[in-house]
Amino acid sequence: MSKITAAITGINGWVPEYKLTNQELSTMVDTNDEWITSRTGIKERRILKGEGLGSSDLGANAVKGLLEKKNMKAEEIDLIICATATPDMLFPSTACIIADKVGAKNAFAFDLMAACSGFLFSLSTASKYIESGAYKKVIVVGADKMSSIVNYEERTTCVIFGDGAGAVLLEPNEEGLGIQDAILKSDGSGRDYLQMKGGGSVNPSTHETVDAKEHYIYQDGKTVFKFAVTNMADVSAEIMERNNLTGDDIAWLVPHQANKRIIDATARRMGVGTEKVMLNIQKYGNTTNGTIPLCLWEWEDKLNKGDNLVLAAFGGGFTWGSIYLKWAY
Ligand code: UT7
Fold first, then answer.
1. 72: nearest Cα among 108, 97, 107, 96
2. Number of CB atoms found within 10 A of residue 208's CB
């Protein structure tokens, strides 16, 4: 019997309708379209409006659409892994809530937290369940309602983030397609540069933590930028070298959409031309765990069976990594 690999066999994305433009942000904080565009590449981002809606709603919409596209029943799903940095609540997991909302009665479900690298870490985890033969239909959903932890009075962070979700179906493949290799890394000594201080077990929410705005995302942008540029480029170069790939062999770079300048630096280091880089940061900003699946979703029509893709991300933790896969359809 040939070796089983884990291949993406379906993809769907979901973003809320409301568009928060650079123009509107410039009426809220001291910023302008020129600064945001030149420093980040972002023009607008989507915001989930409405009472009682959270990341599970973004994720459930992405998964429902995926099931429709695949003409698949929710009961067929074996496992749902949700990558999120903005869970509906600390527990139960957002994955359990998504499973319930889509009717995945036979699936077990759990969240995986690795900040902006969560989708890659989840994809790699999911692939092991498939490669081992344990499960046959695994959904990885990246979903983040970043607007729930963004301080819209703080110009250095509020211009960057947006809400969105994407979901992929992973199934066994016997043609050698799908996930080929993964390099995943973390360094917790970087935790102070990108974090949400309040609400956890060290610093549970109180009036004081809210007054100090510790329920919002904190980022030392310059430091994170420096680490992101180096590490995302290094790990992408490393996975290419390990798999004897040159820039010409790569059909698409699928980078986490945090900052266009970080993406450009990674592509340059890999020797991949800009025409082969998936970039939709201008429309959605940084949706954290949504960025990579939202790219795959938007580029699905342009992908061909056998295409070599390199996925790369960097995020809080610090966490970072790269996955090399062969597109399977
Ligand atoms: O996805 C997780 C990982 N996250 C990342 O990878 C993000 C990495 N960091 C970044 O993308 C960038 O650091 C930012 C986009 C967050 C900031 O860009 P920067 O080029 O590093 O700007 P800066 O923080 O060095 O600020 C430069 C100047 C400052 O003014 P002074 O001190 O030079 O007078 C800021 O106060 O720009 C000012 N500034 C702004 N001006 C207009 C900061 N934010 C804004 C703003 N509008 N929104």
1. 107
2. 10
- Reported pTM: 0.97
Is residue 7 a contact partner of residue 171, using CB atoms and an 8 Å limit?
yes
Q: Which atom of ligand 1 is the closest one to the Cα of 224?
A: 8
Angle formed by the axes of helices 55-70 and 94-102, nearest 10°: 40
Residues 29 and 139 grouped into a single domain: yes
Residues 97, 11, single domain; the answer is: yes
Contact 144, 85 (CB under 8 A): yes
Domain final residue pick, 126, 159, 177: 177
**CATH number for 254:** 3.40.47.10
What's the pLDDT score for residue 160? 98
Q: Which domain covers residue 265, as residue numbers?
A: 180-326
- The set of protein residues with a Cβ atom below 6 angstroms from ligand 1 is 31, 35-36, 39-40, 116, 155-156, 159-160, 221-222, 224-225, 228, 258-259, 262, 286, 314-315
Q: What is the distance between the alpha carbons of residues 119 and 116, in angstroms, rounded to a whole number? A: 7
Mean pLDDT on 307-312: 98
Strand stretches in the chain, DSSP E:
5-14, 18-21, 44-47, 79-83, 108-112, 138-145, 163-173, 178-186, 194-195, 218-219, 252-255, 308-315, 319-326
pLDDT-derived band at 2 (thresholds 50, 70, 90) equals: confident
Q: How far is the CA of 316 from the centre of ligand 1 (A)?
A: 16
| Active site positions, annotated | 116, 256, 286
Task: Looking at the structure, tell me whether residues 38 and 112 fall in a common domain.
Answer: yes
Determine the pLDDT at residue 1: 59
Cα 215 to Cα 56, 156, 200, 202, distances in angstroms? 19, 16, 10, 13
Nearest ligand 1 atom to alpha carbon 157: 16
Query: Are 18 and 156 members of one domain?
Result: yes
* 324, amino acid identity: Y
Residue 323's nearest CA partner among 185, 224, 143, 164 is 185
- 147 CA distance to ligand 1 centroid (A)? 18
106 and 90 in a common domain: yes
